From TrEMBL:
Protein name, as recorded: Uncharacterized protein
Xref: PANTHER family: RAP1 GTPASE-GDP DISSOCIATION STIMULATOR 1
GO molecular function: guanyl-nucleotide exchange factor activity
SMART domains: ARM
Localisation: Cytoplasm, Cytosol; Endoplasmic reticulum; Mitochondrion
Alphabetical UniProt keywords: Cytoplasm, Endoplasmic reticulum, Mitochondrion
Species annotation: Arctia plantaginis (Wood tiger moth)
Signal peptide residue numbers: none
Any one of the GO CC terms: mitochondrion
Length: 652
């Protein structure tokens, strides 16, 4: 049918309906429209607008029912998204519920629910017409009168309405819907068998609010009710909705603590174990994708709760907490969801020195190292062909294990124990050259930095391993990976500091890229890192550029290598940038260390020339003149460096 014919037919159909004078015939026509539903070809919206306001309540009922059926068609929905349709429906819903109008109210709710499905125009009209207070009041009345069918229809209408976006979900929050939902959920929980559909609808509304306003914190009452539903339900879909809600709410520390105190994490852990057992036995009715999804959500919930300091302490309970014991047990689990969760959880428990020391004594450190080595080897083998474990899982497990190792290595007692055991540093150094994932590299480098802090033996191992040093240098030249790119030069700087009284420093000068990595760190955004780079370069300069007696001469010219690497790394340019960008804010102690480095290196003619070309002397003069907190000795030192660069650094 072409456009003109369709329009003509619609007009004719409208005319036919308008000219029906017999009520029975009109009812029959409306029933025909209802029966045909979304497949009804004609636009009779103008007729229905009039009939909705009829004095005959049967005609009103059938007209609204017709609207409800017609708007199941997406194209027709926009046509009926009209105030002339919606306002009378809202007017009906304001009336008291009686036995005579129960069916009419049901159809009104159905119509609004269908009109709001993917239709912002309908939602906007409801909002602007004051429809939300009407619907929430109707929900309360239906709840009080135990009219469960109306209660369900109103809830589903509000759900379809709120899905439209934050403007709509915020209006139901302001209208007091959450308090009504809390009453409904409480009542459902008192039943022997609660209504899964009602519970799901309420939870879906909460989910929409969470999605549209992730920062919104629900009252403790609601979060406790959701946790209680999770405890009582065996329905996978409802469990998923509960976990999803709690996961979003657990961004707030108060909810983390609530879940820790109320046994929420223990419950989730127990459910996870049950899910794994049933899944492995093939006893689950849900499809695999659904099961994997809820397992991931549940695991994420365990971890996010543990990021809260108070929650973590509650769950650790001096090493006797049920959740902590479960996590230690899961370190041996063959299920990757449980194993990954355990590794990440241990990393979160390892945020307090006394906990870390206790875990070290309980051999958790060695267990984590086992896990890292196992999955690192699997990843190496995966390059030769398909493996039973997905690449993302391999990376996540390695990253989690080495992150936890890093946290455990912060405590001084643990550094000594790890160094004395002699296993961790060699294993991590062997792995480093083969690591390709920058997230894993970041934490591996950080772990090595923690392990060598105060441990000369570990620093010597690093300096003696040319392949590992080359890998550190490689990551130090990967600015696109800020984590690994920032950790690599810090590891070198800490190693140099440990080796200042040992000949092993020489290996760092010999491996290409190490010096330039330290030079690059001069312009890091944090003054701590800048100072670490300055100190390391100063110590290397002292050793490399010192005059040697004939007996101390070696085949390798460390002075020449060091200066050539400095120049190749554009040391002058980096110093100029460092001073220019931090002129007013550079801490005095950092400035003192920088001047010590410049004082040593500016005595070398080749470096002097690089400094002069980069205008280091001019930058230093500006720095001196702009600061009033420099000591006289520092000013004298600056003058000496400026003079050395200006007078002796001549171009060739």
């Amino acid at each position: 049918m072409d456009g003109a014919s369709a329009k003509k037919s619609t007009s004719f159909e409208t005319l036919v309906i308008q000219n029906i004078t017999n009520v029975s015939e009109l009812k029959a026509k409306l029933n025909d429209i209802i029966k045909t539903g979304k497949d009804y070809d004609y636009d009779v919206s103008s007729c229905l607008k009039a009939l909705i306001n009829s004095s005959d309540q049967d005609i009103v009922l059938l007209s609204i029912q017709a609207v409800s059926e017609l708007v199941k068609c997406e194209e027709k929905r926009e046509t009926y998204a009209d105030k002339a349709i919606i306002a009378p429906i809202l007017g009906i819903l304001q009336k008291d519920i009686t036995t005579e109008n129960v069916e009419l109210i049901k159809q009104c709710c159905r119509a609004l629910g269908n009109l709001c499905c993917d239709c912002d125009n309908s939602r906007q009209i409801i909002l602007e017409s004051g429809g939300i207070p009407i619907l929430i009041k109707l929900l309360e009345r239906s709840f009080n009168m135990k009219l469960e069918a109306i209660q369900m229809l109103v809830a589903k209408s509000l759900l379809n309405y709120s899905i439209g976006g934050s403007e709509f979900s915020e209006s139901i929050v302001k209208g007091g819907l959450i308090e009504v939902l809390a009453r409904i959920l409480s009542m459902e929980l008192e039943k022997v068998d609660f209504d899964d559909d009602m519970i799901s609808t309420c939870l879906l509304i909460l989910s929409v609010i969470n999605d549209n306003s992730p920062e919104f914190l629900f009252e403790e009452t609601i979060n406790k009710l959701v946790l209680k539903i999770l405890k009582d339900t065996t329905n996978v879909e409802i469990s998923e909705l509960c976990v999803d809600h709690l996961l979003t709410q657990a961004e707030h520390d108060s909810v983390k603590t609530l879940l820790a105190n109320e046994g929420g994490v223990q419950l989730v852990c127990a459910r996870l174990e049950q899910l794994v057992d049933k899944h492995d036995a093939g006893d689950l009715n849900a499809d695999d994708t659904e099961v994997q999804s809820i397992m991931k959500q549940a695991c994420d919930l365990v971890i996010i709760v543990l990021t809260g300091d108070e929650a973590m302490r509650i769950l650790y309970k001096n090493g006797m907490g049920e959740v902590y014991i479960s996590m230690v047990k899961w370190l041996d689990s063959p299920n990757y969801h449980l194993l990954t969760t355990a590794v990440l959880a241990i990393g979160n428990f390892a945020r307090q020195d006394d906990y870390c020391i206790q875990m070290m004594q309980d051999n958790i450190f060695d267990k984590l190292l086992d896990i890292f080595e196992t999955y690192h080897k699997l990843e190496i083998r995966s390059s030769a062909g398909p493996q039973p474990v997905a690449g993302a899982t391999l990376s996540k497990l390695q990253h989690g294990a080495v992150s936890a190792l890093r946290n455990l290595s912060v405590a001084r007692d643990n550094k000594r124990r790890a160094a004395a055991a002699g296993r961790a540093a060699p294993a991590l150094l062997r792995a480093l050259p083969l690591v390709r994932d920058h997230h894993v590299a970041y934490k591996l480098l950080a772990t090595l930095r923690m392990l060598l802090d105060g441990q000369e033996s570990v620093a010597k191992l690093l300096a003696s391993d040319a392949e590992a040093l080359a890998s550190v240098a490689r990551w130090g030249h990967a600015p696109e990976h800020t984590g690994a790119g920032g950790e690599a030069p810090r590891l070198l700087a800490w190693a140099v500091k440990q080796l200042r009284h040992h000949p092993h420093w020489a290996h760092i000068v010999q491996v290409d890229g190490c010096i330039s990595s330290l030079v690059n760190m001069l312009v890091a955004s944090h003054s701590l890192m800048q100072n670490e780079a300055i100190l390391a370069l100063t110590l290397l300069a002292i050793e490399s550029l010192k005059k040697l007696s004939p007996d101390e001469q070696t085949d390798y010219d460390y002075g020449k290598s060091f200066t050539s690497q400095l120049i190749k790394s554009e040391i002058g340019k980096h110093v100029t940038i460092l001073v220019d960008t931090n002129c007013a804010k550079m801490p005095v102690e950092v400035a003192e260390n920088l001047l010590a480095f410049l004082d040593i290196t500016s005595k070398n003619n080749e470096v002097q020339l690089d400094y002069k070309e980069a205008k280091v002397h001019e930058t230093l003069k500006k720095f001196r003149d702009s600061r009033n907190d420099l000591s006289d000795d520092m000013k004298i030192c600056i003058s000496g460096i400026v003079s050395a660069i200006s007078d002796n650094g001549t171009s060739v």
